[in-house]
Amino acid sequence: MLISICMCTYQRDHVVDTLRSIAALQLPDHVTLEVIVVDNDEHAYAEMLVKGQANVMDMPVYYRQETAKNIALARNCSINNTKGEWVAFIDDDEVADPDWLAQLLSTAQTFQADAVFGRVKSTYPSHTPQWIIDSGVFERPAVSNGQEVSSGATNSTLVSQAAIKKYQLKFDSDYGLTGGEDADFFYRLYQHGGKLVCSNEAYVSEEVASNRLNINYLLRRAIRIGETYTRYRIQQAPLANKLAYFTDVLIKLIILLFIVLVKLPFGQSKYAKPLLQLVDKYGKIKALFTSKTVKLYN
Predict the structure, then answer these.
(1) How many angstroms separate the CA atoms of 128 and 130, rounded?
(2) Which of the listed residues 105, 122, 251, 253 has the most CB atoms within 10 Å of its CB?
């Protein structure tokens, strides 16, 4: 069985460490790999890095370039170059656990899933503000093995090539500068009847980048996540559904505002997470009334 591992990269030297972790994967005897790396930099920043590491790997590594600065188009370029029965996704700032892919595949087979989402464990550089670590703002919610979901990300993922082809799935370039193209992609798979599950045993590690260790980045990200959720789930819904959604989100926003105010005197580590949840709700409401969105990729 061939599995294609897709990775998009943009001006990040860590892509070499990610490739090294892929080379160290422990796989079942019947599984072989190919790796497709798509450079989204018009100046081909990663070309020599990728090709240099490819020379010392015992699996084919294909370098491709998408010159248009658009993460959705880069992801489409990657899946267009796959030949595997399954397609895996990993980010260029992550390191795969040796059992990552084997666990994703095992979960997919056990639960007869079309897509499986593994865990991402955050690690922190030594200069990380303590409130960020204590607040857990970069920690992902716990999941159970086989837990069904309606969407997910491409940071630790396995998806059936048959499902991609059956439903003619592509990443939407409208999300190319905002992010959220992966959530939209997998939600459409879910709407087609695809089965999406989580794996509690498959994981990658990611050291949080220094430029993300601040409240300004976290607030922008929270607004964008809220906006994206509304865009791919609600914008095309009937008016009655939008009104019900608006009411529900507004009530949650008010409750979160109260929680933030209560926790405010106890410091940033206590109020940061509910504040970001509040801002997420603001983003959800904002996207109902305007098409202007936060861009994470400039």
Answers:
(1) 6
(2) 105
| pTM of this structure | 0.93
**Amino acid in position 148:** E
How confident is the prediction for the chain on average, in pLDDT? 96
What one-character DSSP code corresponds to residue 4? E
Measured CA to CA, the distance from residue 79 to residue 70 in angstroms comes to 15
H or E element in which residue 5 lies:
strand 2-9
Q: 295: which 2 tokens?
A: 């861009």
Structure tokens at 67: 């010159």
Q: How far apart are CA 89 and CA 101, in angstroms?
A: 10
**pLDDT at residue 26 tops 90:** yes
Task: Quote the distance between the C-alpha of residue 298 and its chain's center.
Answer: 18
Residues with Cβ within 8 Å of 255's Cβ and at least 6 positions away in sequence, in order, are: none
Taking only the tens place, the pLDDT of each residue in 219-249 is: 999 999 999 999 999 988 999 999 999 999 9
Architecture of domain 2-212: Alpha-Beta Complex (3.90)
Cβ atoms of residues 216 and 275 within 8 Å: no
> Amino acid identity, residue 256?
L
Pairing between β-strand 156-160 and β-strand 115-123 as defined by DSSP bridges: antiparallel
